[in-house]
Amino acid sequence: MSQRRKVTVVGAGNVGATCAQVLANRDYADVVLVDIKENLPQGKALDINQMGAVLGYEPYVVGSNGYEETAGSEVVVVTAGLPRSPGMSRDDLVTTNESIVGSVTREAVERSPDATLIVVSNPLDAMCHVAKDVSGFPKERVFGMAGILDTARFSTFISWETGASAKDVTAMVLGGHGDQMVPVVSATTVGGIPLTKLVTAERIEAMVERTRKGGGEIVNLLDTSAWYAPGAAAAQMVDSVCLDQKRVLPCTAYLEGEYGIDGLYMGVPVKIGGGGIEEIIELELSDDERAELDKSADAVREVVGVLAGSS
């Protein structure tokens, strides 16, 4: 590989491959795409490399079934894991993916002990706990992608509703990555104008509810989960680490008293720079939003409680 910085994406399925594609197009790092399925990461890497000749980017993408090529990665994105299948309980999904995420994390950090870990695998909040525990990394270097995706969905619906550019929508979605996520309406603006001054309460509630069910809506349409937006969202987090952008983004971070929540991974706004999470930002929430966030935390604790060794 070249002397460029290196990013590893574990899992060459739709989300992982999309993340690798977006990162290659950013043109600042080589990418290693890892998957246990023979030929899958190699084939997708070759395809992404050949697309570079069309779009004009230079990074080299390597596909591998092992981890030797990942050594010295600046960031490792973990997308590996199984989707929930018919008849599989939530507890089954947690325990199955706990094993997978634990295994790939162990392999990756052995070769990249200074990396930042970005977790995408579901159930997201619980898998962040797994990656943190297995890696032994500080909380600043282990966090998850969920809030950017959920916020992007909320912003898209607001843009459609108001007829405004999505670039002018400022929104934030907090909490666990599930039906009890908390779109923060009080902090949502369009071109600096509060959303509540532009859209009726009834329409806002409809957008909030659609955001909460956003993943399920796509599953119902495609019979599988989304990948374009999640892959791009993970790549945005990698950008902020590798380029020390210090972006303020909603991510799944380990809280130790912030928002009144202790010892739990939850979606909150954070500042991301070269060392990972540099600051957790506490928003002023309405009483209703605070109550919803507490309810979301309870739901996350329930899922995390399924992990082996959890109390």
Structure, explained:
This protein has 311 residues and is an alpha/beta fold. It is 43% helix and 21% strand. It is built from nine helices and 14 strands. It has helices at 14-26, 40-55, 90-111, 124-135, 147-162, 201-212, 214-222, 228-242, 287-304, and strands spanning 5-10, 29-34, 61-64, 75-78, 116-119, 142-144, 169-170, 173-174, 182-183, 189-190, 193-194, 247-256, 262-273, 276-280. The strands form four sheets. It has a six-stranded parallel β-sheet, sandwiched between helices. A three-stranded antiparallel β-sheet has the order 7-10-11. It has a three-stranded antiparallel β-sheet with strand order 12-13-14. Helix 2 (40-55) links the parallel strand 2 and strand 3 (61-64). It starts with a strand and ends in a 7-residue tail after the last helix.
